[in-house]
């Protein structure tokens, strides 16, 4: 097996010339993580998208970029690590460890107090690495994406789901929210009744405060959704918090899909937070049956 010495690995800021090495090395994520369009940069300048740094691991002997991640400033003292990647030829050699430990040091230098990341639950190696570096699980969520083109735009009586005002329903929604996340989550993200309604996605896109954001609740008042719909685009994002059974969740989603379809939405991204781990596996199966690409993620975090 090829060995890599720690001295050979240089952690440095990303450069445009790194792109080819990363792509040919099997970079699996959206290529926009490597090539920011000018619109993205403009939104960062006016603070509608958090500031992002791209950091790479460079092999000095082979003169090749073999690792990558992005560091997102979500708030003055909370940072997120995303898109962690190491070329498969150099895995299990300490490259990811050095990349992550150096990034955590950067967070400290910048005055950050906390850092978190999303890890696919099926990626055992990544989960073990983050745990080794002191991260603990804050929550397990379901992520899914897919098309809702098949949902009818025709009139329908929505007997189980209704749109609600945040102001008059804040306490009910907050009670559901607290039942779906851990006390560690509440403490880590400093959640209160005054800010929970911004949702998890707010950590990555300040733009959502200007997007059409609606709140839906079911008749049993055991599930609610935050729906983000950007004007002029055919995409929407749903954050769903529920302590209900999967069948109830499915009905609520079907109602929301139909409403969104009327507004021209074709593609949906879903982030589901629930009270029971078993329910999350059932929700995964339900969403797959509905035609969505679905996976479980662990959201992990640590103090710096």
Characterize the structure shown.
The chain has 304 residues and is an alpha+beta fold. It has 2 domains: 107 residues, 3-Layer(aba) Sandwich (Aminopeptidase), CATH 3.40.630.30; 161 residues, 3-Layer(aba) Sandwich (Aminopeptidase), CATH 3.40.630. Helix content is 29%, strand content 32%. The chain has a 12-stranded mixed beta sheet with strand order 1-2-3-4-5-12-6-11-10-9-8-7, with helices on both faces. Strand 2 and strand 3 form a beta hairpin. Helix 7 crosses helix 8. The two termini are 34 Å apart. The model has no long low-confidence stretch (mean pLDDT 87).
Summarize the structure.
This protein is an alpha+beta fold and 304 residues long. 29% of the residues lie in helices and 32% in strands. The chain has helices at 19-24, 38-45, 95-109, 124-132, 166-180, 183-188, 246-262, 277-289, and strands spanning 9-13, 52-59, 64-73, 78-86, 114-120, 136-147, 161-164, 212-218, 223-229, 235-242, 267-274, 293-303.
Question: Can you tag this structure with a few keywords?
Answer:
304 residues; alpha+beta; Aminopeptidase; twelve-stranded mixed sheet; 8 helices; globular
């Amino acid at each position: 097996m090829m060995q890599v010495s720690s001295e050979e690995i240089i952690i440095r800021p990303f450069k445009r010339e790194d792109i080819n090495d990363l792509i040919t090395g099997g970079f699996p994520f959206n290529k926009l993580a490597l090539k920011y369009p000018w619109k993205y940069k403009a939104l960062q300048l006016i603070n509608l998208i958090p500031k992002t740094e791209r950091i790479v691991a460079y092999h000095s002997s082979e003169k090749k970029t073999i690792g990558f991640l992005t560091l997102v400033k979500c708030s003055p003292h909370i940072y997120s690590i995303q898109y962690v990647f190491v070329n498969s030829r150099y895995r299990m050699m300490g490259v990811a460890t050095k990349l992550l430990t150096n990034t955590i040091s950067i967070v400290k230098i910048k005055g950050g107090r906390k850092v978190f990341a999303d890890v696919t639950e099926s990626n055992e190696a990544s989960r073990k690495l983050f745990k080794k570096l002191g991260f603990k699980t804050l929550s397990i969520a379901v992520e899914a994406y897919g098309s809702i083109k098949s949902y009818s735009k025709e009139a329908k009586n929505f007997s189980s789901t209704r749109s609600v005002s945040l102001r008059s329903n804040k306490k009910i929604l907050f009670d559901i929210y607290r039942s779906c996340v851990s006390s560690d989550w509440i403490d880590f993200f400093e959640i209160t009744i005054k800010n929970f309604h911004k949702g998890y996605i707010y950590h990555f896109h300040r733009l959502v405060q200007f997007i059409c954001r609606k709140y839906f609740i079911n008749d049993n008042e055991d599930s609610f959704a935050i729906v983000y719909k950007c004007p002029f685009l055919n995409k929407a994002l749903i954050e769903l918090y529920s302590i209900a059974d999967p069948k109830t969740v499915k009905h609520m989603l079907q109602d929301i899909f139909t409403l969104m379809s009327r507004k021209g939405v074709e593609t949906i991204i879903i982030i589901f937070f629930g009270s029971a781990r078993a329910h999350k596996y059932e929700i995964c199966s339900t969403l797959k049956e509905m035609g969505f690409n679905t996976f479980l993620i662990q959201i992990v975090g640590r103090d710096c």
